[in-house]
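User: Need the bound-state model for adenosine-5'-triphosphate:
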Amino acid sequence: MATDERLAAQQWPIVTRRWRAFGWIAALTTVYAVSWQLVGIDLGRAAEGLPRLLDWGARGWPPDFSNPQVLALRAAETVAMATLGTTIAAVLALPLAWLAADGISPSKAVAVPIRWWFNALRGIDSFIFALIFVAAVGLGPFAGVLGIGLHVWGSMAKLYAESMETANLRPFKAAVASGANRSKAFVFVLLPDVVRDLLSVTLFWWEFNVRASTVLGIVGAGGIGQMLKNSMDLLDFPRVVAVILVVLALVTAIDQVSALLRRRVA
Amino acid sequence: MSSPVLVVEGVRKRYGAHQVLHGVDLAVAPGEFVALLGPSGSGKTTLFACLTRLLEPDEGQVTVNGRPVTGTRGRGLAAARREIGMVFQQYNVAERLSALDNVLAGRLTHQPTWRAALRRFPDADRRAALAQLRLVGLEALAAQPAGTLSGGQQQRVAIARALAQQPRVLLADEPVSSLDPVAAEGVLSTLSGIAARDRVGVLCSLHQEHLATRFATRVVRLTAGRIVNPEPSNPAPQRSA
Ligand SMILES: Nc1ncnc2c1ncn2[C@@H]1O[C@H](COP(=O)(O)OP(=O)(O)OP(=O)(O)O)[C@@H](O)[C@H]1O
Ligand SMILES: [Mg+2]
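Assistant: Bound-state model below.
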């Protein structure tokens, strides 16, 4: 009796799998169709805009590198914003990461609300924070530093906690089993074991923040982004091209430095 | 016989449906070297984890030097744990810390947190840690990161760490399984010396019957989740080959 039934049972999954594939294709098609409609893609407008872009590019040549000290100052301001913001975030992130890390935290009761706090910070982009701080503390890089610091605080703390949780916890547990409390076991045994990972995470976010803070000027938070915005408003294309080239050089240089440092600590 | 430093009563532990410990009873007196024999998977590591409450026993009591390990938390638990030195089957040394720092971790419980954070232990503790490293023959490698040591050397760092704690009870989970016969005998005679000289109660799981009978003052077996058939104790360990 059973042979036919067993064969049927074997073939059944193949049939359902085929239906499932159709389902996926239909769902994806719908998502794209709806997105296209919502965004209002208009290829005609792209075709009209393209020559205009090319024209601006042509008018932007040769780039205007006059007042190089101002360009350099704004670039330095951007790096300074990223560096201070990252440092603030790191200093705030380390203790909270410790309190939130599973199996390491001295108290489970605080770990959960702290993790909600991380998610809240991560959910709001540094751009939005900067916008709020520009309104609160006024225009300039200080607002940018606060924006970067707050947003990245959550992201860094989350990654710090993950590096701690995925480290080898056995020596830490051994110290706890010997009667040391979790704080002592953490600072003496676990922290030195993970400090390189934490540094590497920090450098990654520093690099990320340099890139992010090139944009922050657009909301008035200082740095080279602000120059880009000003030149754009004046339709000063040679200056725009110069600023973009400086941003590219800056980001490339920071990537190299960060990669080098990370190789050093690894 | 003096009153026991380690008392285990009715310890039960199960993983899901698998009952590993069916009520373990055991007492270890100061100066005793008790060898725990039992086939692989019989629950030796589980028992040790329950004794320090790294694993929560389902039932039963553990007392060390008169202090309850079970049924306490916070400072009470820390005070009891301080009396128990543990040598883990997988050493559990911190690989990026030097051998000396690993041994100092055994002194952590006696230090205020600021000393732990600044990594500044009193000279007396550093000297004691170095002395333990000398005892296990690793003084020359004190500054080397523990992760770069051989398995046997890491095992000896773990022993030195447990001894640095100056415990009243020493638990050693197969401390010689990764050592060659000569090194194994060295480690076991160190442990039996600590029992005899410092009046520490030693409980040591082993796989090799002949090492157990040679070094231990008493041999017990873990079978079907219980300690069975405690053999009559030797008045003194037999050191002859
Ligand atoms: N976390 C766990 N979850 C489920 N079962 C476990 C767990 N840890 C141990 N066990 C089971 O409990 C039993 C006892 O394991 P344990 O490690 O205590 O044995 P052991 O006597 O130390 O063995 P060995 O001599 O090989 O070290 C084994 O059957 C094991 O599979
Ligand atoms: Mg084991």
